[in-house]
Specification:
The complex is a heterodimer.
Chain A (H helix, E strand, L loop, with lengths): L3 H4 L9 H4 L2 H14 L7 E5 L3 H12 L4 E6 L2 H10 L3 E4 L5 H8 L7 E4 L6 H13 L5 E4 L3 H4 L2
Parallel strand pairs in A: 1-2, 1-4, 2-3, 4-5
Helix pairs in contact in A: 3-4, 4-5, 6-7
Chain B lengths: L1 H4 L9 E6 L3 H10 L6 E5 L9 E3 L10
Parallel strand pairs in B: 1-2
Antiparallel strand pairs in B: 1-3
């Protein structure tokens, strides 16, 4: 555990291990995706990949006040969790390129913030990267979790 | 952690599977193959906390604002 001396904290008695086990790592990482993307009240946000960290980015976008949260993944089970955790809309990449649907959902404007929480090197990520630029408006903010040299388009 | 304590955030849906520590091979097999909708696996040194050997936790989360 990096920085254990700073990260260790007593667990309140009314919380279970399961309640808090993801706080020091997964949740803080996902939340940082929403924070570094500077999600503002009313924003439209797309979160690419809905693994544990992407799901926590979805939670973070909701906490930050996003009005529209679009969860993108290729796994329907994960997308179901995304909807429960705050995604208003979910898009399965197996059903086609998500970018045109994102444009439609935002009336052609694209999202204000795109958060990328995907596995470096995945073929899905490369596909997404090749299509992302045309779907996100130029003034939007991007937040990339993970190795930036690999994820940045 | 305060946000969890005041129930603004419920992360329990992400711990989808629980195993006793001596089932670690089974746990790794599940996780590495990403089967059964696994997100995160919890391993318990005290096997009595894992009912019936393996407990698959539902992904139930309240729909309240989180």
């Amino acid at each position: 555990m990096p920085d254990a001396r700073a990260n260790l904290a007593p667990i309140p008695k009314n919380l279970t291990d399961e309640d808090v086990v993801l706080c020091p790592d997964i949740f803080s990482t996902g939340l940082s995706g929403a924070e570094s993307g500077n999600v503002k009240v009313g924003d439209a946000v797309a979160v690419f990949a809905q693994g544990p960290i992407g799901l926590c980015a979805t939670v973070g976008a909701k906490l930050k006040g996003a009005a529209l949260i679009i969860g993108v993944d290729s796994n329907d089970e994960r997308l179901a969790v995304a909807r429960r955790l705050g995604a208003n809309v979910t898009l399965n990449t197996k059903n086609g390129d998500p970018v045109p649907e994102i444009k439609r959902l935002t009336e052609g404007r694209g999202v204000d913030v795109a958060i990328e929480a995907c596995t470096p090197g995945s073929s899905w990520r490369r596909t997404r990267r090749s299509t992302l630029a045309s779907g996100i408006k130029k003034s939007s903010r991007r937040s990339v979790l993970g190795p930036k040299n690999e994820c940045d388009a | 952690m305060t946000m969890v304590e005041i129930r603004r955030v419920d992360l329990t849906a992400l711990v989808t599977h629980k195993f006793a520590l001596d089932q670690i091979q089974e746990a790794f097999d599940l996780f590495s193959h990403q089967r059964n909708g696994v997100l995160k696996v919890a391993l318990y040194p005290d096997a009595t906390r894992v009912q019936a050997g393996r407990e698959v936790v539902g992904v139930g989360v309240s729909n309240e604002p989180c």
